[in-house]
Write a structure and sequence with these properties.
With 248 residues, the protein is an alpha+beta fold. Helix content is 28%, strand content 26%.
Length: 248
């Protein structure tokens, strides 16, 4: 069942989203060569807690980090560690925030120092795909219109969308109905209604869409070990279209 949220609930999710957006901006300013991903994890926790939020990923199904830090060929769920960032890397930072029993979720991929043209294009296309999906999150349209628009744009640029992981509803838990694939045929699935709150998150690979989960049970990498990027926003469907809840 897809929950229709009240204006008051959406306002609270928006407060979680603002905490998240401010935290992501802080993290982006610390992304540089030589920084360990566990340092980013520590900064994220401090920034979220000082704003009266809580890191939603910490302990979720046993996840050990406060955030996910996924470098280069890591698609999602990278565990913060002693690994140092290097010039030319790309890193996806995925953050979840709980505030007054409501959740927000967002991700961004950034380059470390100067990155190559292929990596730059991958980031640009993935971020643009997110906003194309958001533009299609209009009341009266179908859920798959979001999915199909993302897939069409990504594949027209020579990249592939991950099938193994999808976007999701969000509210009083971090993952709720519906699932939001980044692929599919338009005009199918539930009709979008005001009050729906969705986390739209294209995960885009430079090569094959196939992925592998490593022995730690979390870290997910591209099967061909080529680069992957991930962008995400939490949005609310309104009568006028989508309102992004995870931006300043």
């Amino acid at each position: 069942m897809i929950v229709i949220r009240s204006d008051e609930e959406i306002e609270t999710i928006g407060k979680a989203g603002r905490i998240l957006a401010e935290t992501l901006e802080k993290l982006k300013s610390h992304v540089k060569a030589g920084v360990r991903t566990k340092e980013l994890d520590k900064i994220a926790r401090e920034e979220i807690i000082k704003r009266n939020g809580y890191p939603a990923f910490k302990g979720y199904k046993g996840f050990p980090g406060n955030i996910c830090t996924s470098i280069n060929e890591t698609v999602v769920h990278g565990i913060p560690s002693d690994k140092k960032l290097k010039n030319g890397d790309i890193i996806s930072i995925d953050v979840g925030v709980k505030f007054r029993d409501y959740f927000a979720d967002a991700a961004v991929t950034v380059g470390v120092g100067k990155i190559g043209d292929a990596a730059k294009k991958l980031l640009e296309v993935t971020e643009k795909a997110l906003y194309i999906g958001i533009e299609n999150a209009m009341p009266g349209r179908r859920l798959s219109d979001i999915s199909a628009s993302i897939q069409a744009f990504v594949e027209s640029n020579g990249f592939s969308v991950v099938r193994a992981f999808v976007g999701h509803g969000i509210g009083t838990t971090i993952h709720e109905e519906p699932e939001i694939p980044n692929f599919g045929k338009p005009g199918t699935g539930p009709r979008l209604e005001p009050g729906m709150v969705l986390a739209i998150e294209p995960m885009v690979n430079a090569g094959t869409f196939e992925v592998e989960i490593l022995e730690d049970g979390w870290t997910t990498v591209t099967k061909d070990r080529r680069l992957s990027a991930h962008f995400e926003h939490t949005i609310a469907i309104t009568i006028d279209g989508a309102e992004i809840l995870t931006q300043n």
